[in-house]
Amino acid sequence: xxxxVYPGSFDPATFxxxxxxxxxxxxxxxxxxxxxxxxxxxxxxxxxxxxxxxEKATGDIPNVVIKKFExxxxxxxxxxxxxxxxxxxxxxxxxxxxLQMAQTNRVLAPDIDTFFVTTSLEYAYLSSTIMKEVAQYGxxxxxxxxxxxxxxxxxxxxxxxxxxxxxK
Length: 168
Ligand code: ADP
Prior knowledge:
Layout: E1 3-8, H1 15-27, E2 30-36, H2 47-57, E3 64-69, H3 73-79, E4 84-89, H4 92-108, E5 113-118, H5 128-136, H6 147-159
Parallel strand pairs: 1-2, 1-4, 2-3, 4-5
The structure holds adenosine-5'-diphosphate (ADP).
């Protein structure tokens, strides 16, 4: 069975992430999305919330499982019995870092390969960070993520008093 892990922060997931998950699910028997718990970052959503958001957004894809993990992606891949790590590539700006990560992972775990999914053009600009920034200023989020996610994002920003208004 060909198993792939797709590790990331997903804070929160966007249409870009969902596109990578959907496409990977057509290639691999099972895709395990790994939501990174990173104690040095302060995400907007807890790891449990990020897992929950992704579970709901991918509920219609039977061979996708969402799990949280901490530490190295290669360790997560090994524990998941995966042969492949999937990452998304948007633009050249992603390339240098992703190549370095893939090469490092190859040194750490020569039996695990990294497969890159090039982003669909309509999501090439999109990241969780950009979505959060637009959300803070009240912009239209409909092309960034499904309503269930953008509604939860707006709720969180309101709770944290993080909504900004543009100066007139
Ligand atoms: P990380 O903190 O590991 O970069 P992210 O949640 O930002 O976690 O991204 C996880 C993966 O998804 C990365 O490989 C990233 O390049 C990819 N990705 C993010 N946004 C998009 C997008 N719009 N299209 C394709 N891939 C994307």
